Amino acid sequence: MSEAAFNFQTLDPDLILDALWNTGIRVESGLTALNSYENRVYQFSDDDKRRYVAKFYRPQRWSADQIAEEHQFAFDLHADEIPVAAPLMLNGQSLQSHGGFFFAVFPSLGGRQYETDNEDHMEWVGRFLGRIHQTGQKSAFTTRPTLGLEEYILEPQKILASSELVPAALKDNLLQAVDKLSTTLHQCWHTNWQPLRLHGDCHPGNILWRDGPLFVDLDDARTGPAIQDLWMLVSGDRQEQRIQWDILLEAYSEFRDFDVHELSLIEPLRAMRMVYYLAWVVRRWQDPAFPRAFPWMNDEDFWRRQIALFTEQERLLQEPPLQLVPQF
């Protein structure tokens, strides 16, 4: 599929205002663009001074059915009193369409930044992730993808191999490093985990704090192991990680049992995300927002560092996985 299919060139302010008008919302303020590369997200106020956020989905990334499953998951979480940003029902539906774009409107929900070094915050998040996964296991996605090597390693390998953005002098070394990483991943990745509907991209930036956590951006919701929604919240050296895991899992287990064997997937998931993220930027390079946001992609030193990171990550995959002595 042509990369031109993924652009937002026709998404101008008039189209956005027309789209919102058709939902019955009367925009009073200007449109403030919020930080989002994959989609286009705008904050605004209506004529009653109520604040909203409109999210316009990147064309041809998700089907209507897949977006509907994202929305239903948000509604399920909201019904179970889990603090999550859920879309509004407008004219009897959450998924809107105008000018070739799917979009949804959300209430504007502000908050502070989640504090990654705050043990109380981490404990709260652990409890709510247990509850999110309780809800997630009540039903299954049927159209959204399942986390695995095809999407996160094999397809990115092809993208990197065909990209002209990778410096010619370093391309062979990069592809060899990715290929070696892929080979080791195939040896250590396993799928004997309970499949769940997941947030999918639960990093600290997708958690706001307002008298407790608020989970935002279910755009990457998919089926996968519980560990996927936990591992990105943990950082530091091994001892620091063990302390953080103890806090997260003790709180998580108040609501749902956690299979400690999934800890062996932490480094494979990290490796998959590293390769997927790099290929994602390469794939979106024709979108003008990406060269502006990632100018270092034109620097050969950046690609040398990527080769070194992939080489180091392949070494880490061969180390024994993190071991915990659960206290719950």
Q: Name the strands of the widest sheet in spatial order.
A: 1-2-3-5-4
Classification by helices and strands: alpha+beta
Given as residue ranges, the uncertain stretches (5+ residues, pLDDT < 50) are 1-5
Q: Provide the succession of SSEs.
A: HEEEHEEEHHHEEEEHHHH
In percent, how much strand structure appears in the residues?
5-15%
Task: Please bin the fraction of helical residues.
Answer: 40-55%
Q: Please tell me the overall pLDDT.
A: 94
Helical segment tally? 9
Number of strands: 10
List keywords for this structure.
single chain, 328 residues, alpha+beta, 5-stranded antiparallel sheet, 3-stranded antiparallel sheet, 9 helices, 10 strands, disordered N terminus
Short overview:
The protein has 328 residues and is of the alpha+beta class. Helix content is 41%, strand content 12%.
Question: Could you give the topology of this structure?
Answer:
Layout: H1 13-22, E1 32-33, E2 40-45, E3 51-56, H2 64-79, E4 96-98, E5 101-107, E6 112-113, H3 119-136, H4 149-162, H5 168-188, E7 196-198, E8 207-209, E9 213-215, E10 222-224, H6 238-252, H7 266-283, H8 289-293, H9 300-317
Antiparallel strand pairs: 1-2, 2-3, 3-5, 4-5, 6-8, 7-10, 8-9
Helix pairs in contact: 3-6, 4-5, 4-7, 5-7, 5-9, 7-9
Structure description:
- The protein is an alpha+beta fold.
- The chain has 9 helices and 10 strands.
- The chain has a 5-stranded antiparallel β-sheet with strand order 1-2-3-5-4, with helices on one face.
- A hairpin with a 6-residue loop joins strand 1 and strand 2.
- It is globular, with a radius of gyration of 21 Å.
- The relative contact order is 0.13.
- Mean pLDDT is 94; it is low at 1-5.
